[in-house]
Design a protein that fits this description.
Blueprint: H1 3-14, H2 20-48, H3 53-79, H4 86-112, H5 120-142, H6 145-154, E1 156-159, E2 162-165, H7 166-195, H8 202-228, H9 235-249, H10 251-266, E3 274-277, E4 280-287, E5 291-295, E6 301-305, H11 306-311, E7 315-316, E8 324-332, H12 338-350, E9 362-369, E10 372-381, H13 384-403
Antiparallel strand pairs: 1-2, 3-4, 3-7, 4-5, 5-6, 8-10, 9-10
Length: 404
C-alpha cells in the first residue's frame, strides 16, 4: 500500500477501531515527551552559558517539534507490529509541517529582523508561507498530491519565446527564495559573531560583515540560477552593460559605496566619534555602506554621503583622544583685581564633578578693550558630546558666584 495515497482512508478506517485510544495516547505522550525533553536540553545549554537568551528561545521553538516528530516516528514503528496506525501516520506529516514552519520563521526573522522587531510585511509573508505549507500537507494526506503535481506539469506558461510548465516556474521560485533566505541567515549569523569579537576594531568588523553579506548573496543568486537551469554565461553580457551603466550614470552612488569601504578599512572614522563636515557636526551613530549618520547635540540627525568623508576635509575631535576643551569667555571692568581672579578661577572649576583633573582648568586674559578686560576660563571633559552643555552651564554658574 502506498501511504501517500491511503493516509486519509486509513484514518477513516481507524476511527471505528476500538484500539484508536492507544494511538491517541501515544501521540499525546510523544507531544509531552518532546516538549519536556526540549525544555530540559535548553535549560542545560543555558546553565552551561553556551547560548544567549534569544538563541535559547529560538532553539526551544525548533527543538520541540523536532523531538515530537522523532518520537512519533519511533512510536509508529513500534505500534505498527500490533495494530493499525493510520492516525499516527497522519500525525507524522503534521509534525513535519509544523517543524518546517518553525524553521522557516526562524530563518526569516534571523535574516530580516535580527533585532526582534517583526514588521507587518514579514508577518504577512510568514502567514502566507504557513498557509501554503498546510495546504500542501492537506493535499498529501488526502492523496491529492500526485494529481496536483500532474496538473502543474501540464499547465504551460509562456516565458518569452518558450513555454515552461508551472511546476518548473514554482521550483525556480522556491530555489531562489530558499538560497537567498539561507544566504541572508548566514550573513546575519556571521555579523553577529563578528560583532562579538572585542579584539577586532569595530570598523573592520563592520566592513567584514558587509563584504560577507554581499558575497553570500552573490553566491546564493548564482547557485539558484544554476539550479533553475539558467546558463550563467548569459550574465557576462549583463555584467558588461551594468559596468557601463555604473561608470556613466551612477558615479556618485558608486563613489559613496567605495568611499564607505575605504572609511571602514582605514579606520579614520568610527562609531561614536565627534566630527564636523562642512556645516554639519555631531556624533557618528551609523556608518553604512553608502552614507554615515551624524547626530547633533540637539538630537537632529544628518545623513552624509560617504563620498564627502573621503573627498573633503573632516574634523575629527575624538580620533586619538576623546578629551575636549570647554571654555567660557566674559568681561570685567578695568578696576578689577585680575591677578586674584585668574588665580581663583582654576580652583573653583576644579571642584566641578565632570571636569578632568589632568589637564587642569585654566584662566587667561585674552584682550583689553574700552569695554573691559576679556577673560577666558577653560576646562577639559572626557565625553564632550554628553557633557558639553551641562559643563558649560555649571562653569557659568560657578564663575558667576565667584564674580559676585
Amino acid at each position: 500500500m502506498n501511504p501517500t495515497q491511503n493516509l486519509w482512508s486509513q484514518l477513516l478506517a481507524d476511527l471505528n477501531d476500538p484500539n484508536l485510544q492507544w494511538q491517541l495516547l501515544a501521540v499525546l505522550a510523544c507531544i509531552v515527551a518532546g516538549w519536556w525533553l526540549s525544555r530540559v536540553l535548553v535549560r542545560r545549554l543555558s546553565a552551561s552559558g553556551r547560548t544567549a537568551g534569544g538563541t535559547q528561545v529560538s532553539l526551544g521553538r525548533l527543538l520541540t517539534p523536532l523531538l515530537v516528530l522523532l518520537f512519533i516516528i519511533l512510536a509508529t514503528r513500534a505500534l505498527s507490529s500490533f495494530q493499525s496506525v493510520g492516525l499516527m501516520r497522519v500525525a507524522i506529516p503534521l509534525a513535519l509541517s509544523y517543524l518546517l514552519i518553525r524553521a522557516v520563521f526562524y530563518l526569516l526573522r534571523m535574516a530580516f529582523a535580527p533585532d526582534g522587531r517583526v514588521g507587518v510585511i514579514l508577518q504577512t509573508v510568514e502567514q502566507a508561507l504557513a498557509a501554503l505549507i498546510w495546504a500542501g500537507v492537506a493535499l498529501y494526506i488526502t492523496g491529492l498530491w500526485p494529481e496536483f503535481v500532474d496538473y502543474l506539469e501540464q499547465t504551460k506558461v509562456p516565458v518569452g519565446r518558450h513555454h515552461e510548465s508551472l511546476k518548473v516556474l514554482l521550483q525556480a521560485l522556491v530555489w531562489v527564495g530558499v538560497t537567498l533566505v539561507l544566504a541572508l541567515w548566514a550573513a546575519a549569523l556571521l555579523e553577529q559573531r563578528l560583532m562579538q569579537l572585542d579584539s577586532m576594531h569595530s570598523s573592520l568588523r563592520a566592513v567584514l560583515a558587509r563584504v560577507g553579506r554581499g558575497l553570500l548573496i552573490l553566491v546564493a543568486v548564482l547557485i539558484s540560477l544554476s539550479l533553475v537551469g539558467i546558463d550563467l554565461t548569459v550574465l557576462s553580457v549583463f555584467g558588461g552593460a551594468l559596468g557601463v551603466g555604473l561608470g556613466l550614470g551612477l558615479q556618485k552612488l558608486v563613489s559613496s559605496y567605495v568611499s564607505g569601504f575605504v572609511v571602514l578599512l582605514e579606520r579614520s572614522l568610527s562609531i561614536g566619534d565627534l566630527v564636523s563636515v562642512e556645516k554639519f557636526s555631531g556624533q557618528i551613530v551609523q556608518i553604512n555602506t553608502r552614507y554615515t549618520v551624524l547626530r547633533a547635540s540637539d538630537g537632529t540627525e544628518a545623513i552624509i554621503p560617504n563620498e564627502m568623508l573621503v573627498s573633503q576635509p573632516v574634523q575629527n575631535f575624538s580620533l586619538s583622544d576623546r578629551n575636549s576643551r570647554v571654555s567660557s569667555i566674559f568681561k570685567v571692568a578695568h578696576g578689577a583685581d585680575v591677578e586674584r581672579l585668574l588665580a581663583a578661577i582654576p580652583a573653583v572649576l576644579a571642584r566641578l564633578p565632570q571636569v578632568l583633573a589632568n589637564p587642569e582648568p585654566s584662566a587667561h586674559l585674552l584682550s583689553m578693550s574700552p569695554e573691559g578686560l576679556e577673560i577666558e576660563a577653560a576646562v577639559w571633559v572626557d565625553d564632550p558630546y554628553k557633557l558639553r552643555g551641562s559643563v558649560q552651564s555649571a562653569m557659568n554658574r560657578a564663575l558667576l558666584t565667584l564674580l559676585h
